Amino acid sequence: MKSYQKFTKLLILLLFFQALIFSGCNERTSNPSLTAEYQLSGALIADRNHDSTIVVIDLVKNDSTLTDADITFDDDSLVYNALNLSVDFVFSLTNTSLTRYLSSSRNIAVRDSSNFHDTVTVNVTDTFSILTIEPPNRLLPGGGPVALSWNGAANADGYILAAVLKDEVYTGQGYSAFSTSLNTADNIPTLAFTDGINTVFGWYYIYVYAYTGSPDSILAGEFLPTSLPGQLAANINVADLQGRFGSLVVTARDSVYVYAAAAR
What we know:
The chain is mostly beta strands. It is built from two helices and 20 strands. It has helices at about 1-25, 215-220; strands at about 30, 40-45, 50-60, 65, 70-75, 75, 80, 90-95, 105-110, 115-125, 130-135, 140, 145-150, 160-165, 175-180, 185-190, 200-215, 235-240, 240-250, 255-260. Strand 2 and strand 3 form a beta hairpin. The chain is elongated and about 70 Å long.
């Protein structure tokens, strides 16, 4: 009987310590003697035209850029001011796998020495493709519109349509707009193929972006075929940590050729 009681007590103690371990895994910690506000802005960009994934994050503490924090995305460490990145003074990681983080929930862990530690969970969308484009011969005499359809991307909160001149991709130039369609089909208007007034002739690359959350439009725009149409509302709001983060997956490009229609 005594042996049974000892075993029972031992089992209870083991279960108690195990519960402590698991409850501490995602526990938020901060130094109560330190008054600080942290602002996180970032995005994950997976581009099928590059077969790679980039995570980029800017972290600010009390209005000053934080350079020595420890930030991980899905347990992969971000590097501050990476030499191979086109943007300076941000945290980033580049993965040569397009699908490493896609179609799932991922954790972003932020640690500022012993002062602050928190983890936020974000959703990441999946790859998808443009299915049809009208006109199917890709020829646009005089300009648009262009009708597109695509298959749905898992976890996507919405879609963005983009068109950019072939020679201006990844420069921030071009047209983009949030799709207002309730299904996976929409139109790129004639405006996309003009300078605002006149038609601009040439080859245009056509893309659809799927997004989740609230990717930072400035940071994400540095790595997209063309800039985002606007900034979505902040989606990180926990004690001492606010901001925005989201994912963007870019389809393999399609194209159309805009040329001057023959006079009748």
